[in-house]
Amino acid sequence: MILTPRNVLTSTPMEPFATKVAILAQKLAEILAEKLGHKSSFFQESCLPSTCYLRLNRYPPCPIPSDIYGLMPHTDSDFLTILHQDQVGGLQLVKDGQWIAVKPNPEALVINIGDLFQAWSNDCYKSVKHRAVTHPTKERFSAAYFLCPSYETVIESCSMPSVYRKFSFREYRQKVQEDVQLHGYKVGLSRFLV
Ligand code: OGA
Ligand code: NI
C-alpha cells in the first residue's frame, strides 16, 4: 500500500487518537485556566485544528545511549502537550534539579505544560524541562499532541504585574529559531521578561 499523508492518518490508529487528545487538550486548558479564576474561551478561539499538531516520534535503538539523546533537553513551545509513550520508556523530566524517568503506563497519558501556558499563567504553571533517552536494543515510539495557537495570537499574562511582556506566537517561534541557530540551544521565555 502506498502511504499518502491522508491514509497514513486514516489507516492507522492515529486519527482516533488525534481526535480524542484534541478534545482533551482543550478541556485541560480550560480547567487549568479556571483554576486561576479565568473562565476563558481564549484557547478555543486561538488553538484551532489547523494550528495544533500531532507528532509521531521514532527512536531507533542506540548502542551508546548514555552519549546520545533521543531528544535533547527542552521545554515545549506550546500551551500544553499530551504525550503517549510506549512500554520501552525513555522520557525523563527535571524534578528538584534531578533527571527522573517517567515510567511508561499504558493506562496513562503524560501532560506537559508548555512555555505559552507558563507565560499566560504568569509563572503559576511551569513548563517542565524534559528529554528522551534512547534504549540500547529497542526501538521506541511516542506520539505527542501540541496545543498551539495561530502565529498571530498574542500571549498576554492573565494576571498583573506581568512577569513577561506580551508577545505573539510568531515572535516566540522566531526567537527560538534564532537562538538555536546562534547559540545551539533554545533560551526560551527568559527572552521575554519585562
Ligand atoms: C516532544 C517530546 C518526548 C518523548 O516530542 O516534544 O518531548 O518521549 N517527546 O518522545
Ligand atoms: Ni517535548
From TrEMBL:
InterPro entries: IPNS-like_FE2OG_OXY, IPNS-like_sf, Iron_ascorbate_oxido_reductase, Oxoglu/Fe-dep_dioxygenase_dom. Coiled coil: none annotated. SUPFAM superfamilies: Clavaminate synthase-like. Residues 50-149 form the Fe2OG dioxygenase domain. It comes from the Eukaryota. This is Fe2OG dioxygenase domain-containing protein.
